[in-house]
Design brief:
alpha+beta, 2,3-Dihydroxybiphenyl 1,2-Dioxygenase, domain 1, 2 domains, 6-stranded mixed sheet, 4 helices, 10 strands, about 20% helix, elongated
């Protein structure tokens, strides 16, 4: 019955600033804007595949949310950090250990890196890895994951 998640929505303090971030910085395709309702919509991936909605609200009405953009795992490992740095976006891993190194969630397994939008929403680039789920390994570096795969 359920085949996926089609859309998610965020409240933002300044719709124009957020449009700039999602359209120009993250390069998502804006598909609709409603001035009267102060709302903008973006396609994620192919048009009509997944959608992000942004709604302008006063700062006091904004609750911080998290969601992840699905990406190719090789891109997350080799290019995501540079992609974010070129756009002056600070990134972090799930462990928030002070490094900008993507980390592996062994229970999926998946590789990911985190960053924030202008309102402080926690965003993530995540790529599902080949291999078996190994929840007993927790969260680890890519190098540790590869070493465990070779055991």
């Amino acid at each position: 019955m359920i085949k996926g998640l089609f859309e998610t929505h965020l409240y933002v303090e300044n719709i124009k600033r957020s449009i700039d971030f999602y359209a120009n910085t993250l390069e998502l395709e804006q598909c609709h804007f409603e001035e009267e309702r102060r709302a903008a919509f973006f396609w994620i991936g192919k048009p009509k595949q997944f959608m992000l909605g942004l709604w302008e609200k006063p700062k006091a009405e904004i609750d911080i949310r998290h969601f992840a953009f699905q990406c190719e795992p090789d891109w997350v490992l080799n290019e995501a950090v540079n992609y974010l740095k070129k756009r002056a976006i600070k990134c972090r891993n799930f462990l928030n250990d002070g490094t900008e190194r993507p980390m592996i969630f062994a229970w999926m397994p998946a590789i990911s890196i985190y960053f924030n939008d202008p309102d402080g929403h926690s965003l993530e680039f995540i790529g599902i890895l080949n291999g078996e789920s190994k929840p007993e390994n927790g969260i680890l570096s890519y190098e540790q994951w590869k070493a465990l795969e070779n055991e």
